[in-house]
Design goal:
With 269 residues, this protein is of the alpha+beta class. The protein has a single domain, classed as Double-stranded beta-helix, CATH 3.60.130. Helices cover 22% and strands 27% of the residues. Strands 1, 2, 3, 4, 6, 15 and 18 form a seven-stranded mixed sheet that branches. A four-stranded antiparallel sheet has the order 5-16-8-14. Strand 1, helix 1 and strand 2 form a beta-alpha-beta unit.
Length: 269
């Protein structure tokens, strides 16, 4: 993954930060998720703290890789290298993706906290789908139209789910769903636009190194997440689930980007 310019580091996320150990943190977290879809966390000192925080903001959903308490322990198991769909349990880099993109209704929230940092690498990479959508609207509106066409992507294995990168709702809000690994297949009409999408993802990504007790919670219908490759015994805990508070789906498209689209250039999005 390319080296990011200085402004695209965790400093760009400073206004998203909440200390989860302080009074009123839950209200600040829910407000932040409604406002921007992302909260960067400090003060989550243990697995017990992660469980307690997850229980306050979501109904935790167990799945294939989760432990009995619903959390998933993410570390290099040394058993999953090269297995499609198991890259999070290795030490390689991950491309920006939606968590559980291959099921009909992905979890709305993802909470990830670092328990032990890597010896090197292992930085989280976060990408705001709204920023990517605006980037494409400005630079390649045709790509937005094509990436919004129904059932032009298939995410997951044999029991996966047909979808599209951008889903436009009746109220004009937009949600993003994406993966770019071996479990992603795209319609021929989408293929020419994937390089443009990848370039926009790179332009909008923000690097977030995590120390123990630090993490983030994101709206999985707006933000994509990734990871750089690492060495050492990096340990993170992850919770997935549905919010215990009202959280509108996706995002409102950027108004300035919409105005920048040439007449007749945007199509349906």
């Amino acid at each position: 993954m390319r080296r990011l310019p200085p402004q695209q580091t965790q400093a760009a996320l400073a206004h998203h930060c909440v200390n989860a150990s302080l009074p009123g943190a839950t209200d600040r977290i829910t407000a932040g998720l409604r406002d921007s879809g992302l909260v960067v966390l400090t003060g989550v000192a243990s697995r017990t703290d992660v469980l307690a925080l997850a229980a306050r903001i979501m109904t935790v959903a167990a799945h294939r890789d989760s432990d009995s308490d619903g959390l998933t322990t993410l570390r290099d198991t040394r058993r999953h290298a090269g297995r499609a769909g198991f890259a999070g349990l290795g030490n390689g880099g991950l491309e920006p993706h939606t968590e559980r993109s291959g099921i009909p209704v992905p979890p709305r929230l993802m909470l990830l906290v670092c328990g032990q940092a890597a010896e090197s690498g292992g930085d989280s990479i976060l990408v705001d789908g709204r920023a990517v959508h605006a980037d494409l609207l400005t630079r390649s509106p045709t790509s937005v139209r094509v990436l919004s066409q129904r059932c032009t992507a298939y995410f997951g294995g044999g029991d996966g789910h047909p979808s599209q990168v951008f889903t436009v709702y009746d109220d004009h809000r937009v949600a993003v769903r994406l993966r770019l690994d071996g479990l992603a297949r795209f319609s021929p009409i989408v293929q020419p636009h994937l390089p443009v999408l990848r370039t926009a993802l790179q332009r909008q990504q923000v690097r977030l190194p995590l120390l123990p007790g630090q993490g983030y919670v994101l709206d999985n219908s707006r933000w994509l997440h990734a990871r750089t490759a690492f060495t050492g015994d990096r340990v993170c805990w992850r919770a997935l689930g549905q919010p215990r508070f009202v959280l509108p789906e996706g995002f409102v498209p950027d108004a300035a980007a919409r105005r920048a689209v040439p007449v007749g250039g945007s199509g349906q999005w």
